[in-house]
């Protein structure tokens, strides 16, 4: 008993030091490569009211009938970048996914589309993942088109800063719609990745999904 407290103190200090070192170390990541050149082709969107917002289609290699063709079995993927991001950030995900499906002779191809907000800084509710998550709240949106939603460090449960009343209302309506449309959203899988302890802007609890019992939801 007599020796226990110094040992405990040393262990505690060591733990605090280890956590501190981990949190303040550099965020490591591995670079992804593509093996063909990139084309970001502007993709016409009917009814787009804001001319500086674009939708791009990501295509690798030569542009010909074969690379541009979209077959019924193929899977379209929409990438919505976050605040201050750009459509070009679709590259790392698209190149990896295209490479894997092609090298493994998958019976389908994936086609990537990316929204571009002209690198505007977008404030608050415009966070890419949160926008996708809010789509079912749009009266004209067909939820049956939504199979899988992947959000990356997106503040889904609450914004990092509540700027005004309309943002609070936006979050409320988004939350309600996922509860109300329980049947329509039954076949939609939602995966929310959070940045972990090193993401100070969107900490874990903001990226958490609050209704995980009712849907096919995964919080990673
Ligand atoms: C996929 O990546 C591998 C390396 O990991 C490369 O050798 C190969 O050429 C790539 N294939 C395509 C179709 O991009």
Automatic annotation (TrEMBL):
Keywords, sorted A to Z: Endoplasmic reticulum, Hydrolase, Membrane, Protein transport, Signal, Transmembrane, Transmembrane helix, Transport
Q: What is its EC number?
A: 3.1.-.-
* Keyword Transmembrane helix assigned: yes
Looking up Gene3D superfamilies in the UniProt record yields: alpha/beta hydrolase
The UniProt entry, under SUPFAM superfamilies, shows:
alpha/beta-Hydrolases (SSF53474)
Coarse class of the protein's main subcellular location: endoplasmic reticulum
Per the UniProt entry, the signal peptide is 1-21
- Which family is annotated? Belongs to the GPI inositol-deacylase family.
| Protein name as catalogued | GPI inositol-deacylase
According to its UniProt entry, this protein's organism is Heterorhabditis bacteriophora
Q: What is the lineage of its organism?
A: Eukaryota, Metazoa, Ecdysozoa, Nematoda, Chromadorea
């Amino acid at each position: 008993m007599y020796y226990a407290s110094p040992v405990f103190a040393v262990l505690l200090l060591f733990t605090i030091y280890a956590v501190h070192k981990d949190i303040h170390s550099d965020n490591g990541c591995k670079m992804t490569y593509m093996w063909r050149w990139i084309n970001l082709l502007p993709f016409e969107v009917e009814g787009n009211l804001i001319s500086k917002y674009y939708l791009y289609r990501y295509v690798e290699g030569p542009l010909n009938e074969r690379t541009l063709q979209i077959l019924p079995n193929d899977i379209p993927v929409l990438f919505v970048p976050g605040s201050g991001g750009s459509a070009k950030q679709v590259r790392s995900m698209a190149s990896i996914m295209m490479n894997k499906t092609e090298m493994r002779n998958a019976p389908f191809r994936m086609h990537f589309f990316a929204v571009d907000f002209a690198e505007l800084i977008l404030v608050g509710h415009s966070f890419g993942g949160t926008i996708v998550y809010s789509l079912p709240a749009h009266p004209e949106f067909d939820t049956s088109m939504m199979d899988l939603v992947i959000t990356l460090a997106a503040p889904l449960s609450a914004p990092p800063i509540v700027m005004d009343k309309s943002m609070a209302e936006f979050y409320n309506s988004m939350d309600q719609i996922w509860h109300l449309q329980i049947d329509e959203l039954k076949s939609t899988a939602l995966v929310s990745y959070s940045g972990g302890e090193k993401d100070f802007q969107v900490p874990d609890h903001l990226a958490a999904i609050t209704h995980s019992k009712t849907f096919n939801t995964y919080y990673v």
